[in-house]
Known about the structure:
InterPro entries: BchE-like (IPR051198), Cobalamin-bd (IPR006158), rSAM (IPR007197), rSAM_horseshoe (IPR023404), rSAM_sf (IPR058240). Its cofactor is [4Fe-4S] cluster. One of its GO terms (molecular function) is metal ion binding. The protein folds into two domains: 2-138, 3-Layer(aba) Sandwich (Rossmann fold), CATH 3.40.50; 160-250, Transcription Regulator spoIIAA. Helix content is 35%, strand content 12%. The protein has eight helices and nine strands. Helix 3 links the parallel strand 1 (45-48) and strand 2 (73-76).
Amino acid sequence: GLMYLISSARKTYPDIEFKILHTITCENAEENVKRIISDFKPDLIGIRSLSICSGEFETLAKVVRKEAPETPFIGGGPYPSASYEYILEPSPPLVDLIVKGEGEITFVELITYLSKNDSLPSSLTGTVVPLQGGEVKVNDARPIIDNIDIIPAPAYDAIKLEDYKGISNLAYQRADSCAFIETSRGCTYKCYYCHAALSETVRRRSPQLVFDEISEHYHQKGIRDFVFVDDIFNVPKKIGKTILRGIIEHF
């Protein structure tokens, strides 16, 4: 998610400061958004959302529009990628641009364009932008990242695990003492309700990179609970077993 975007952007722009607000960690998300905009004064604002959170997406987008009307504002994640018409067709559109699909490469190119032109691009690969009269422009699709080993580990330093104290994740674990691990992307199935249906294959990380990431959480942060967030973990089954056996051997 967002931590992957940050780690990818830092490879090119190590001096840029990023801030993440996960709405599950705050009692009043709208007030927290207002406070961050006032205190942080961002040069770019983005919202990531699942489809199940479409209502909250719209609510917070309107808050951002009111509090920072001149700040470039983008959306991304499963909901904007699948439902960009609903987001961009209103007048004014809820956001200025949508990153469609995997965002690591697109996000870095977007930052580059914004830093050089002081505006968002209209023709960037992997994006959708609003046009006059409620129309939208779907730019060329961003090719998937075939070798996901090139993506740096997520920037966990961008969040504070203690902010998740008292919160359980979808695996019914304490969210302040677990880490999410992605060993692969994509799925071989085509379930119509799932964003992973857009993929055509499963791309796996090298098992050693997975072990290295788990090891950092385990030894340096004392984390003992891990959640695999793959679209489908056990394809191909051989590599899935390799990772599970490696966890037993290493930890």
